[in-house]
Design a protein that fits this description.
This protein has about 260 residues and is of the alpha+beta class. The protein has one domain (about 30-260): VTC, catalytic tunnel domain (mRNA Triphosphatase Cet1, Chain A, Alpha-Beta Barrel). It has 8 helices and 11 strands. The protein has helices spanning about 10-15, 20-25, 40-55, 80-85, 140-145, 215-220, 230-240, 250-260; strands spanning about 20, 30-40, 55-60, 65-75, 90-100, 105-115, 120-125, 155-170, 175-185, 195, 200-205. Strands 1, 2, 3, 4, 5, 6, 7, 8, 9, 10 and 11 form an 11-stranded mixed beta sheet that branches. It is globular. The model has no long low-confidence stretch (mean pLDDT about 90).
């Protein structure tokens, strides 16, 4: 895949006061609301300036403030999980393995969305070697069977996503902002690859009882909420045979946001 020139955010992030994983995990957002946003790296640079001025802190893990992630999504032969999302099924799931590349820690993760719009995630640690295919790991297979509607024998690896994540926390510890950049997709079945170039996907996780300063900052930069799934966008771009008409306008919105055409290999 051709190299894409990205804005280096490291210098900007060094100015932020740090927050540790232990500090962040000690604050539970019980009445949580999750909202996603879409922007470009250029606008993100301005957003970070405002977040710094507002006293936000940046998550630091093992000295790193930008954390690389590698995620592998699993699905059925007919892409049942993708189609459930495409068909607007309220109750749906995603199954994936994830590796935090800075630490090497790997997990099997199961995300479930209910008909109230609430998302719950469960996960279990797995050996790093099982990231590429956890099936055959008896403990992981059993965990999937207990927490998912799918079993290991009906799913297989579909889509790898790689990205860099920045996490910000407000001074009151009532909201978190995850910022994903450098998104790259690799379809394990079709062999097609794609990149979102300098698009940025932001997710605001906030305590529903507290006001959100970040919402005001996002609005000032004309960054509006959007419903977007990295897995669904990735399948739309890299799986020629998938029925994905509902997600094509999302791809066009990304292209409009970054003022670039997304190409695939």
């Amino acid at each position: 895949m051709p190299e894409i020139e990205h804005i280096p955010f490291k210098g900007m992030l060094e100015r932020f006061p740090p927050v540790t994983l232990e500090e962040m995990d000690s604050v539970k957002l019980m009445n949580r609301i999750d909202t996603k946003y879409l922007t470009s790296e250029k606008v993100l640079l301005e957003l970070l300036e405002d977040a710094f001025s507002a006293g936000y802190r940046v998550l630091e893990v093992d000295g790193l403030r930008i954390s690389p992630y590698d995620t592998l999504y699993y699905d059925t032969d007919g892409l049942r999980m993708f189609q459930d999302h495409h068909n607007r099924r309220l109750t749906r799931q995603k199954v994936r393995t994830r590796t935090y590349l800075a630490t090497g820690n790997s997990f099997l993760e199961i995300k479930r969305k209910n008909n109230k719009g609430r998302t719950r995630k469960k996960r279990i640690g797995i050996p790093s070697a099982d990231f590429w295919d956890f099936r055959g790991n008896a403990e992981a297979d059993d965990y999937l069977a207990r927490h998912s509607a799918f079993t290991a024998d009906v799913i297989s690896p579909v889509l790898e996503t790689l990205f860099d994540r920045i996490t910000l926390v407000n001074p009151a510890m009532t909201e978190r902002l995850t910022i994903d950049t450098c998104l790259v997709f690799r379809n394990r079945r079709s062999g097609v690859e794609a990149s979102l170039k300098d698009a940025v996907i932001i997710e605001l996780k906030q305590d529903g009882r507290a006001s959100s300063q970040m919402k005001t900052v996002l609005l000032e930069h004309r960054i509006k909420p959007v419903r977007v799934s990295k897995y669904c966008i990735a399948v739309t771009l890299t799986e020629p045979h998938a029925r994905c008409g509902r997600f094509k306008p999302k791809v066009r919105r990304i292209e409009k946001t970054i003022n670039k055409k997304i190409t695939v290999l």
